[in-house]
Predict the structure of G patch domain-containing protein 11.
Amino acid sequence: MMLEAMKKIEQKKQVCFKDTSRQRFREKQIQKDLYDSRVVCEQLDLSKGIESNELWEPYSKSNEYKEIPPEETEAKCNLVEHILSVDNQKELSKITEYLRKEHFYCLWCGFSYSSFEELSTQCPGDTDEDH
Ligand SMILES: [Zn+2]
């Protein structure tokens, strides 16, 4: 009886752990995508003569990509983490949309199409899951 209950708790713990690590992986992915798209966006904008853009300018050069060490993430309140990742997600979709409309660039295809039509027909979608 006791053993059964303990087994159940152990199983539950494992499920919880899996969920958190999957979510953490997802958040890291978003952080990385966001960083990559800012870098690309800056390059594409500059090549078009656009020298200022709120999507990348505040993060340019002086702000290098820093990965949050695992201890720090651990210590953070879940809610804060959640808000952060929601913000990152919003920011990522904003920059993704801009890159697609302005430069016909897809972050996950990894290149610029020659027209918006080409992008719409050849790129599978505007999220990493579509790729
Ligand atoms: Zn694509």
